[in-house]
Each structure stands twice: as C-alpha cells, then as structure tokens.
Design goal:
Number of strands: 5
Order of helices and strands: HEHHEEHHHHEEHH
Strand order of the largest sheet: 1-3-2
Largest sheet: 3 strands, antiparallel
Distance between the termini: 39 Å
Structural class: mainly alpha
Helix content: 40-55%
Length: 208
Amino acid sequence: MSIPELSESVARVIASLVEKSISTPDYYPMTVNGLRAACNQKSQRHPHLQLTEADVGQALRDLETLGWAARDDRFGRSEKWRQQFQHQMLLKRDTQAVLVTLMLRGAQTVAELKSNAAYIGGPADAAAVEAALQDLADRGTPLVSQLPRQSGQAATRWAHRLCGEPEVEAAISPAAGRAGGSSAATEAMEARLAALEARVAALEAQWT
C-alpha cells in the first residue's frame, strides 16, 4: 500500500480525530471547530500547533481524498467528520493506538508508549508495545523507526514516519528526560484536561 508523506497539519488532524473517536465518543463525529480545538490542545501534544479553521478544513479534504476521513451527513447543517484510519491502514486497535500516540506526542520509549497510549486502547504491557512497533516497522512502507540513542537517554525512542524521515532532535518530546514515562498522576491530570477541552470544543461547536 502506497502511503503519501503527510504534512504536519494533516497528521495532527487525523491523529486527533482517531483519538477523540475513542477517548470522547459522546462528542464524535466532530465538527471542524471541535477538531481544531483538539489539534491545538496544550496537553498530550508535541509539538504544540496553532491550526486555523481553514487549516483543519483543508486537511480534512486531503484526508477525504485518501479515504482516511469522511463526512457524516446525518447531522443537518452541522458538518461533522468521521475517521476511517484503522480500516484503511489495516491496523489492529492496539497498534493504531501506538501509532496515533507517536503522531500526537512525538518520539517516545516503549515505556512511555505503554503509559501514554493506554487511554485509547494501547497495549497492556511492554512486550505488546514492542510487537506493535515491529508490526509498524516491518511493513512494505515502514510507519515507524527506532531513533539512535542520544546522550543521557536510558532507552531508545521510536518515531512515526508518516511525515517523512524523523529528525532526531526535533522528534524528542518534553518527556524525553523522564525515565519510564509520565507519572500516573500527571497522566490522569492530562486525560482530565483533554476531556475538558473536548467538552468545551463541543459546546463551542453548538453555537457556531
């Protein structure tokens, strides 16, 4: 399967759409405005982006052409969108969670992926994360790659390749210095913040 190189905005839009379809199903499918808020979240995102409504709209049109996203016309005048990423990419649910987490949060270790992907159906243990990474890496067009270990790092990191060959320095997320990933308390706080941001985006969408 031939996979085009994505722009950063298109990758962020499809990853956010997949994430919200799992983590906040009450607010899915999503409006352009709600999806823009999801893309620009301050939590669970690296790098932080400031996409405009026009950016998101163009990204959705590109994704529609790829068959990765589709309009849902059952909501009257409010245009909403669904993702078809898992089906089109032939991904298992836990493997999709690993790939989407890399797309949303940048390069991560196996331990970080186990922690960070859990809320969207990620693998239950490190061995399963490694199996998912190998599945993604061993495809005809590799979707992830292992980065060279950097000075001071205790473990190697993985990055997605949907936006091309990852740059080692740019791929390192703010969590890079924390061995074993974020603390449970931090992860819980980020999850609550993400859910709150999704609710706010949904309310905003109702008034647009």
